[in-house]
Amino acid sequence: VSGGWELEVHGTEAKLLRKVAGERITVTFNINNSIPPSVDEETQEDQKPDEQEPDITSTPNFVVEVVKDDTKQTLVLDCHYPEDEVGHEGEEESDIFTIREVSFQPTGEADWKDTNYTLNTDSLDWALYDHLMDFLADRGVDNAFADELIELSTALEHQEYIKFLEDLKSFVKCQ
C-alpha cells in the first residue's frame, strides 16, 4: 500500500500503521467473511462457456483509529464497502467506501467500551459526514487507499484460502 504504511499480519487480521504530523493512524481489517456473495445461479447458468468468471475480490469492513500524541482518546471510524458501489465505475466520482459509525475510545485499551457513545452515520448531517471523509482523506485514507486495500485484502485472502485447502487436504488424508 502506497503512502508509507507499515503492514502487520496476524492470521486473518491485518493492520496498516502510519505516523503523520503528531498522529498515529491504524487501519485494521479481517479477511474472514470479506468475499461478497456471488451473483445469482441464473446468471452463471446463462453464461457462455467462453465468458470468464468475474474475479473474486475481498472487500472487508475496516476500522480506522486516529490517535493524537497529546490526547488520551482515539477517534474510531468503522468503515465498509457498500455492495452496490464495489466494481461500479460511475460517471460521477463517488466514494467507494463509507463510514458506518464513529466513536471515541480510550487510547491504549485492548477492548473498546460499549458504554462510550457511538454515532451511526445514517442519522448524521451530510456536511459533517463530508468533513469526516475529508479528515480521513487528509490522513491518506481515500478512494486510492481503499482500492489498494481491496487488492491487499484479496491477495491475503487468496493466500489464506490456499493454505486452508492444503491443511484440509492433509487433515483428510491423515487416518
From TrEMBL:
SUPFAM superfamilies the record matches: Mitochondrial glycoprotein MAM33-like
Positions of region (Disordered): 32-60
GO annotation, biological process: apoptotic process; complement activation, classical pathway; cytosolic ribosome assembly; DNA damage response; innate immune response; mRNA processing; negative regulation of mRNA splicing, via spliceosome; regulation of complement activation
GO terms for cellular component: cell surface; extracellular region; mitochondrial matrix; nucleolus; plasma membrane
Pfam families hit by this protein: MAM33 (PF02330)
Domain of life: Eukaryota
Keywords on record: Acetylation, Adaptive immunity, Apoptosis, Cell membrane, Complement pathway, Cytoplasm, DNA damage, Immunity, Innate immunity, Membrane, Mitochondrion, mRNA processing, mRNA splicing, Nucleus, Phosphoprotein, Secreted, Transcription, Transcription regulation, Transit peptide
Subcellular location as annotated: Cell membrane; Cytoplasm; Mitochondrion matrix; Nucleus, Nucleolus
Any GO MF annotation of the entry: complement component C1q complex binding
Main location: membrane
Bilayer topology annotation: Peripheral membrane protein
InterPro entries: MAM33, MAM33_sf
Keyword S-adenosyl-L-methionine listed: no
Similarity remark: Belongs to the MAM33 family.
Name of the featured protein: Complement component 1 Q subcomponent-binding protein, mitochondrial
Taxonomic lineage from the root: Eukaryota, Metazoa, Chordata, Craniata, Vertebrata
